[in-house]
Amino acid sequence: MSEASDQSRGSRASLLHRIGRIGATLGKEGPRKRSTRLLLQGSLALVIFGLLVYTVVSQWSELREKGVAFELVWLLPAIAFMLLHYVSCAAVWGLILRFLGSPVTPTEAQRIWAQPLLVRYIPGTVLFVLARILMAERAGVSRRVSTAGIVYEQAASIAGALTIATWFLIGHPDLEDQPARWLPLVLLPLIVTMLHPRIFGPVANFALVALGREPLPRLMRFQAVLAVYLSYVLIWATMGIGVFFAARSVHFFDLADLAIVAASQMIGFLAAVASAVAPAGLGVRDAAFAWAVKVALPSGSFGVGAAIAIGVRATQTVVELLYVGAVTAIARRTDPAHRPPGDGSSGEPRPLEA
User: Which string of DSSP letters, residue by residue, matches 174-186?
Assistant: First the structure.
C-alpha cells in the first residue's frame, strides 16, 4: 500500500515537473516573420479602433439628440493624463523588479511593459503575460522573478482600483438593496495582506518547488508592497482624470462629476479583470463603465453612457498606440542593437546597483 502511494506521489511530482519545464522553455523562439510580429502588436488594435469609430458614426444622429456632442479640445488633457498613467505603470513595474532583486534600466522597464500592451487585444491573457515574461528574460530577469513581479503588480493594481471604486459601489443607487456592495471592504485588505512576505513567500515557493523550479531569490518587504499599492492608487487616479476629460469630449460634465467618472473607469477595469477572456476587457469593461457613469448623466441613459464608453475606449486605444510607438522609437534610438546575443540570456537576476 505504501509503495503504491509513493508511486502515486512520484507520478504527480513528475507531472508537475514536466509542466514546470514547459513553462521554463515555452516561447524561447518567437514569431520569425516580421509581418507576424507587426500583426500581433498593431493590427488587432487598429481594427478594434476602426470598429469603435464606425459605431459612433453610424449612431451619431440618435446620440446627438441625447446630448452627445464631440468637443475634441478636451482630448488634449485626456491624452496627457492617460500617457502619464502608462508611463507611471511601467515605472512601478521596474520598481517591483528592483525590489525583487532584478533591476532593469528605466528604458528597459518602459519597453518591457509597453510593447506587450497591444497583445491584450487577443482573447485571453496568456499571450500578454508570456510576452512580458519573455522580454524580461532577455533583459536578464528570470522567469520566476518576472512572473512573481506580475502577480505583485496585478494584485496591487486591483487593490488600487478597488480603493477608488469602493465608495462608489457602496453608494450606487442600483446596488442599494444588495448586501454584496459591502464586499470591497473585505476584499481590499485581504488582497494587500496576501502580498505580505510571510504569506506570499511560502505560497509562491511551494508552487515553484512543486513545478520543479528554484524558489524566488528575494521577496518584497511589506513596506515595499504598501508603497507599490499606494502608487497604484495615485496611478489610477491619474487615469481617472484622463477618462474624465475623454468623457467630457463626448458629453458635458461638471467638475463635480470627476469622482464619479473616475470611479466608473475603476468599475470597468475591475469588471474586465473578472472576465479575463475578453480581449483587453473589450465589451465587458465598456458595458460596466457605461452602467456606472450613467449616474452622472441627467437622463440616466445607458445608451449615452455607452456612447461615452466608446469615446473613452477610442481615446485609450489611440494613447496606447502612441505610447507603444514612442517607447519603441526611444528604445531603438538609445540602444539600436537592444542587447548583444548572450548578454543576460541566462535569466539570472542581475546584481542590485549601488
Answer: GGTT-GGGGTHHH
